[in-house]
Design goal:
The chain is about 5% helix and about 40% strand. The mean pLDDT is about 90. β15 (about 80), α1 and β16 (about 100) form a beta-alpha-beta unit. With about 160 residues, the protein is mainly β. It has one helix at about 80-85; strands spanning about 1-5, 5-10, 10-15, 20, 25, 30, 35, 40, 45-50, 50-55, 55-60, 60-65, 65-70, 75, 80, 100, 130, 135-140. The protein is globular.
Length: about 160
Amino acid sequence: MTGTSVCGGLFGYGYNAITWYSSSNSTVSCSGGSVGGLIGASGNADYTYDSFATGAVTGSSSVGGLAGAYWIGSIAGSYWDVYRTGQASCSSNGNTGCTGKNSGNSEPNYWFNSSTNPPFNAWNFNGLWKTNGASYPTLNLPIVTETTAVVVTTDTT
């Protein structure tokens, strides 16, 4: 993701957003501020739970491994990869509710093939998510089948 300001790996700007069980390994690069690995900026009563970010993050101000400018709201049970994001803090407001992993590349495979390492211990690996041996967890896409025929009529009156 490349932009000028308010950039994030999942979304740029949230307003009354609740983000649960989310992740991003996207590279986020903005020439301006409010830049985060998952969220660029929060505007009002945003909440981020059990999420993580691992992609490289660069910007000029209000930059964080997980969130850029996080003004009103809270972060809980969330993580960022210190080495891969290149960021020493979770958000521009510090590390409250967020834990850095893989500092100095000491845990490069922390996110791989795990359903027990936090935040994954809160995720649903019994159907919704699946672990991958040498990569990040992925979402199991549901198989949708039509069980009832759809009838379309046109009212010309």
